[in-house]
Structure formats: C-alpha cells, structure tokens
C-alpha cells in the first residue's frame, strides 16, 4: 500500500488500539454528560456520540484497508449493540461508506503494480481510465478497453495488502478484546473466522479467476443471468481482468419492492 497506509503489525495494531481506546473514552464521557440532563438532551448526546464513533471507524478502518476495512464493511450490515437502537440505521449508513465510498489510492500508487505484472499500459490497453470505478478492502477496480475493443474491468491489489492482512489477523483478536462489551458479535470466534476465510479467498486472484471463468461458462447463454468472464492471459496474483458489465449497487437492489408487495 502507499506510504500513508501502515503495513507492520505494530503500526496497524497501534491504529486499532487508538480506535478502541477512543471509543471507550467517548462512551464514558457521554454517560457522564447525560447525568442530570433532560430526555431530549440525552437523546441528542447519544446521537452525537454515535455519529462520532461511526466517523472515526470509517476514517481509521478505511485508511488501514485489508482485514480492518473488511471488519467495518461487515459491521455496516449488522445490528451493532453499542449503538442505541434509534440510531443504528444512521450508524450503518455511515459505515456503508466503506462499501460504497471507500478511500481511493492515487493512480501513481497503483500503476506500478499494473505495469510490473502486465507491462506498459499501451501493450494491452487501447484506453485506461485512471479514476477507479470502485475501491474495496484489498484493491481497486478500473475501467479499460483492450486493444481488440473489448471493455474490461481491471481489479488491482493494493501494494502490500497481503502483508497487511496477515498483520491484521494477528491484531484483530486484541482489537476485539477492547470492543467486547460494545460489540458482543466480535466475541464470536465464528464471526472472526469468517472474516479471515473471506479475505484469504479474496487475496487469491488466480483462484478467483478460475472460479469466475467456470461460473461464466456455466451460465453462458442464460436468458437473464450474465456473469462476466475473466481474461486469463491478463490475470496474475495481483491483477484480475474481466469483461466489464454495467449493473446496480447492492443498496439499490435492497430498496427494490418485494415481488407481489
């Protein structure tokens, strides 16, 4: 990753520890501030504390990327016990930025990864949009056009993300101890194991390319299911190139009315 993204276990652990400590201080301060206040005032203080916690989570977990950012993405879809029920939806909406508006790395950081794997951009691409169409926990996706005119999505790992994920797997156990009272879900070893397994799978681009090709072949010609196929000769351990298809984001699909409703 870029210079601003810590890679070592100590540096990433320090960032997670500060985040957990900050939440503990914020919770204690909020409780003290509520003493003697009216119900309306307590409600406003609770909301402010909730949104401050969400903003800090988004900033820290988003900048760390890797497993830490994946944790934030999953929290955006869960019932978070530390948040008063009346404010949970706004808290989730804040954290949803880690799914839909994740911090982007500049192209000057990502281009060397592309060219070290595939050679100069002009060797394989007629056009390459330097602005990512999406950013996630372990990489960014770019839109490009191959020399033969096919539109493709180019998924590129952040530099150093493999090392960062390994560091996080060691740190997250410590992180969850700090947050156990606030987030009982994190005390569940199955939940943390799911994060670890999910990220290990996401880091394996060659496996992902093979799986995506198999699924694309299986559904080729289907009347309404379309799966973008990979471009095998342009897929490496750090780059995944697939056909580009337009679609709708997950929140849009969630908002669609149920059939018959």
Automatic annotation (TrEMBL):
Listed Pfam families: ABC1
GO MF annotations in UniProt: ATP binding; transferase activity
CDD domains: ABC1_ADCK3
Record's keyword terms, sorted: ATP-binding, Nucleotide-binding, Transferase
GO biological process, one term: ubiquinone biosynthetic process
Entry's family note: Belongs to the protein kinase superfamily. ADCK protein kinase family.
Protein name listed in UniProt: ABC1 family protein
UniProt lineage: Bacteria, Bacillati, Actinomycetota, Actinomycetes, Mycobacteriales
């Amino acid at each position: 990753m870029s210079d601003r993204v810590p890679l070592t276990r100590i540096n990433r652990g320090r960032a997670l520890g500060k985040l957990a400590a900050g939440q503990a201080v914020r919770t204690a301060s909020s409780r003290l501030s509520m003493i003697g206040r009216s119900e309306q005032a307590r409600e406003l203080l609770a909301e402010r504390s909730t949104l401050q916690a969400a903003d800090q989570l988004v900033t820290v977990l988003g900048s760390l990327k890797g497993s830490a950012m994946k944790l934030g993405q999953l929290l955006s879809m869960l019932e978070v016990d530390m948040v008063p029920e009346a404010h949970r939806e706004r808290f989730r909406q804040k954290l949803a930025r880690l799914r839909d508006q994740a911090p982007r790395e500049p192209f000057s950081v990502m281009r060397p990864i592309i060219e070290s794997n595939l050679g100069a951009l002009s060797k394989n691409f007629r056009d390459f949009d330097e602005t990512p169409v999406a950013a996630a926990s372990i990489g960014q996706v770019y839109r490009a056009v191959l020399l033969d005119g096919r539109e493709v999505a180019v998924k590129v790992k952040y530099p150093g993300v493999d090392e960062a994920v390994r560091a996080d797997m060691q740190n997250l156990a410590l992180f969850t101890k700090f947050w156990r009272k606030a987030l009982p879900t994190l005390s569940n070893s199955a939940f943390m194991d799911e994060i670890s397994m999910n990220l290990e799978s996401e880091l394996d681009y060659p496996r992902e390319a093979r799986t995506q090709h198999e699924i694309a072949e299986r559904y080729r010609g289907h009347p309404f299911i379309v799966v973008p196929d990979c471009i095998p000769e342009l897929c490496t351990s750090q780059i995944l190139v697939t056909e580009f298809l337009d679609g709708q984001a997950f929140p849009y699909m969630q908002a669609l009315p149920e059939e018959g409703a």
